[in-house]
């Protein structure tokens, strides 16, 4: 004889009531840059960071901050953000507006590692009290500066 089950046993458990398995800690990496004339060196850096960490947050320098860095990018901030966001290795994009925002970003995003290319080696060691600081070798043979110089030379050659 099938006894009707009381309703509370038939009800689908409410979301959150099911004890969830403790999820593994997903490691978070953070990197900063201008990413002007987005090129293979930038992509390779993101790819290698994503091979080491579960999540990649990229801080893209605003045009105003670039002026503070003594740089003027060809591609405007909004477009540089859109291109970085479109890269499949990138999980989140934030704005870089000041040199001193890194500690706040590291804490706000629970960052495990601040990762930069080797041209920044030892420049951010002060943040080792907050997270790992990692410098990865740059991709040789390509840079925004070289691309700009190459285009200029070709234009000149056209006379
Ligand atoms: N990069 C690389 N290989 C290249 C060129 C660049 O790995 N051939 C890396 C750089 O080492 C850097 C990143 O790409 O980590 C972004 O480089 P830039 O756009 O030149 O960034 P930069 O203006 O140096 O800004 O607070 C830090 C600054 O915002 C870094």
UniProtKB/TrEMBL annotation:
Keywords: Lipid biosynthesis, Lipid metabolism, Nucleotidyltransferase, Phospholipid biosynthesis, Phospholipid metabolism, Transferase. Pfam families: CTP_transf_like (PF01467). Pathway: Phospholipid metabolism; phosphatidylethanolamine biosynthesis; phosphatidylethanolamine from ethanolamine: step 2/3; Lipid metabolism. GO terms for molecular function: nucleotidyltransferase activity. Its EC number is 2.7.7.14. Residues 30-148 form the Cytidyltransferase-like domain. The keyword Cell inner membrane does not apply. Belongs to the cytidylyltransferase family. PANTHER family: ETHANOLAMINE-PHOSPHATE CYTIDYLYLTRANSFERASE. This is ethanolamine-phosphate cytidylyltransferase.
